[in-house]
Amino acid sequence: MTWRPRRTGLSGNNVKLSVEHLGLAARDPVALRDWYVRVLDAREVFCNGETPPAFLVALPAGPMLEIYPADSAHPDTQDNRLAGWRHLALRVDSIESAHAELGTHGVAFDDPIKPAGGGGRVLFFRDPEGNLLHLVERPPSSPLALVPR
Questions:
Q1: Does the first or last residue of the chain, that is N or C, have fewer Cβ atoms within 10 Å of its Cβ?
Q2: Which CATH number covers residue 114?
Q3: Phi-psi category of residue 110: left, alpha or beta, with phi > 0 → left and psi -120 to 50 → alpha
Q4: Domain total for the chain?
């Protein structure tokens, strides 16, 4: 018999845990929703109908984004080394294909493709409000390639 540590936390108590959505405060929620729909093929699944509105948009094969009105903005939030959540990683099969397709939608890439932690490659870009995203491509040999999308 092999000893295995007892799992603690939610998963140790038979609670299914998954990411439903990430919150994204926006200076212009309508324009940002439109960008995610047009550029990343997101699909609007909810609008609260208020002025200004809040939305839930579903990313293809991923979580939803809740895009809602911001009360204020701070330029430091664009710094990827600032404490807290700083970017949204989007896994792709081919970084070159995704790069070319996003380029047709006017997405600018300031840096070249770089090595990714855990194996593979990444390519960073920003949405119109400066929120940081990146493409990530994992080779089949990477242990992270086995993690479900």
A1: N
A2: 3.10.180.10
A3: alpha
A4: 2
